[in-house]
Amino acid sequence: MPELPDLTVVAEELNRRVAGRTVLEASAPTPILVRATPEEVAALSGTKLGAANRRGKFLLLPFVRDGSVVRVLAANPMLAGRFWITGRRERVRARTGLRLLLERDEDLRYVDREMLGKLYLAEPDGLDDIPGWSEMGPDADDPALTLDAFRQRIRRHPGELKPLLRNPRFVSGIGNAYSDEILWEARLAPFRKRSTLGDDDIERLYLAMRRVLGDAIDRIRRSVPPNIETQDRSFLKVHLRGGEPCPRCGRELRQIGGREATTFCRTCQPPF
Ligand SMILES: [Zn+2]
Questions:
Q1: CA of 249 to the centre of ligand 1 (A)
Q2: What pTM did the predictor assign?
Q3: What is the pLDDT of residues 184-227, one digit of tens each?
Q4: What gap in Å lies between CA 191 and CA 86, rounded to an integer?
């Protein structure tokens, strides 16, 4: 599942390679993935791609006509949605939600083998109409989210730490993988209740969140482009490494749950 570091690098790569290019033709080969009519999709023809951005777990891609943004694609890839920059002749795969034919013989495509992602085509000032958008908390790497601001916010969000980190109303952009990494880095158990945290625990959580996400972005910048359809999780220290030794203490990492597994170290991340 693409999370903040993955989508940050995808946006950077789109800016490097396709921003400013004209969309010759736009279509939705698998219309169910797109929350827009075929006519609205087709109307993207003749626009230019603006600068891509990321907000939470959304990739934002503006379409510009005569110098003004006329539409914004907000893509929430969920489990398996991926953007591809491909040659025009590349076979159009099943489950392609959007295909943009760009000048210079390349396509930008969104492919989603799990069909769980959603593509919204919003008016420039219409992002608030996207479900959950207006309730979204700050991005986990937002410079305005200082330690003080983080302390204020966390007070309003009770419950266990793992779901808390994944709750976009608290901070946005963190999913199942990076919540495991952050909690391991902070030496906090995923099931621990927020109400049991002291001031120093909260500071450690905040610093771990920033460090883990920042390091991941650096690493992904080196390993993923130009192949933005791929995802690099090889460097994660604990997520989905149940049974392997903890990189810090050497004891066996525990893993519970299936597809949405949680991995942690019972020694380094004590339950209280
Ligand atoms: Zn350990």
A1: 4
A2: 0.95
A3: 999 999 999 999 999 999 999 999 999 999 999 999 999 999 99
A4: 43
